[in-house]
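User: Reviewer 2 asked us to show a designed sequence for the structure in our supplementary figure. I'm pasting the structure tokens here. Could you produce the per-position amino acids so we can include them in the response letter?
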């Protein structure tokens, strides 16, 4: 009996997982990548360390980290989630480690370890790897085609009749038109509460030379990606610098009355000095009006967002092939039999912390299963 012939289009993590899974099950697999280099995104991810997945082993809990795709990912994650990913790499000689925040990296701290594993495993399984080869139409001489073309590259999916949710950036930092803030580049605060476009997040914030970044900002950008795009990345950002810690001015007057307010920092000193903005004011002298102004600056500090910037060199998109047109038990198109999807070509995107890679491993593994 002839081996089934499978074409995988896209040489990223989802494409490699689909190709390896199919080839190890006995299929004849060819993987096409339009650029000269396979797994480019893996190489730069996690600052060159590759955040493989996240140490959350409950599928429903894990799925809550997907602003788009939460409901659809529950079933797939029950079949191939974080635990299965760790075991998959361990079986192929890659030791992984879990950091205190739950992110899982190779022990080597090098993304090259993951690249070498995927490329080496694919070749050992007999996958034919073809770089620098763009595929403009679906081949007809095969049993199955897996589309793993990545975020923003949905032309083939659209040509097959699939509706495409417009791809827009996710996971980005904010540019802020406030010179006083940018002068504090390098200051970090944990936690803060940030609110924009009807969404609130709590977590670490980092002041940058352009504005603000950090986990709280990146999560906010992921959940609000489409709305922020529609607003041309111009909207007010409210920052509560002291979430869960109300400013108790009566106690501060009583305990530190003779001290200058600026010399009693409740935040990093440089930031506190800017927010207080009253170098000669003592706690004993603070009036109710001044107290109110200080509370507003500390708990409802409004920053004008005027644009976005990339999170380092990484780039994640929301948008892609419409999810209801795909069978998430198999990753097969509901519109075109024999066409399968994996990775960011789908309208699925996750928060930072290994969730986007896990979506690639999970959907790729499902798309490569023998039929």
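Assistant: Here is a per-position design you can include in the supplement:
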């Amino acid at each position: 009996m002839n081996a089934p012939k499978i074409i995988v289009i896209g040489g990223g993590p989802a494409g490699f997982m689909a190709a390896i899974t199919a080839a190890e099950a006995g299929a004849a697999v060819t993987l096409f990548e339009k650029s000269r280099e396979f797994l480019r995104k893996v190489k730069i991810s996690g600052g060159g360390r590759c955040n493989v997945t996240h140490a959350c082993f409950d599928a429903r809990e894990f799925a809550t980290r997907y602003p788009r795709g939460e409901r659809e990912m529950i079933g797939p994650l029950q079949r191939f989630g974080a635990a299965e990913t760790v075991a998959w790499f361990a079986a192929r000689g890659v030791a992984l480690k879990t950091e205190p925040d739950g992110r899982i990296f190779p022990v080597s701290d090098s993304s090259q370890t993951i690249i070498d594993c995927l490329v080496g495993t694919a070749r050992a399984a007999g996958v034919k790897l073809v770089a620098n080869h763009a595929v403009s139409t679906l081949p007809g001489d095969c049993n199955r085609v897996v589309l793993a073309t990545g975020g923003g590259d949905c032309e083939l999916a659209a040509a097959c009749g699939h509706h495409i949710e417009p791809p827009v950036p996710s996971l980005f930092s904010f540019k802020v038109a406030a010179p006083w803030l940018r002068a504090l580049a390098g200051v970090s605060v944990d936690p803060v509460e940030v609110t924009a476009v009807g969404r609130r997040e709590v977590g670490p914030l980092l002041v940058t030379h352009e504005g603000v970044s950090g986990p709280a900002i990146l999560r906010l950008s992921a959940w609000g990606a489409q709305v922020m795009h529609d607003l041309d990345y111009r909207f007010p950002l409210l920052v509560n610098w002291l979430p869960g810690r109300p400013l108790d001015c009566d106690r501060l007057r009583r305990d530190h009355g003779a001290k200058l307010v600026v010399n009693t920092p409740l935040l990093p000193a440089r930031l506190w000095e800017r927010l207080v903005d009253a170098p000669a004011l003592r706690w004993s002298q603070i009036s109710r009006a001044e107290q109110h102004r200080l509370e507003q600056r500390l708990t409802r500090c409004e920053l004008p967002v005027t644009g976005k910037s990339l999170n380092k060199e990484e780039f994640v998109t929301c948008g892609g092939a419409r999810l209801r047109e795909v069978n998430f038990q198999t990753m097969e198109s509901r519109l075109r039999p024999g066409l399968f999807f994996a990775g960011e070509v789908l309208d699925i995107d996750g928060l930072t912390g290994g969730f986007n890679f896990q979506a690639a491993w999970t959907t790729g593994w499902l798309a490569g299963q023998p039929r």
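For the response letter, you might also mention the following. Residues 5-168+318-367 form a domain with the FAD/NAD(P)-binding domain fold (CATH 3.50.50.60). The CA atoms of residues 49 and 110 lie 4 Å apart.
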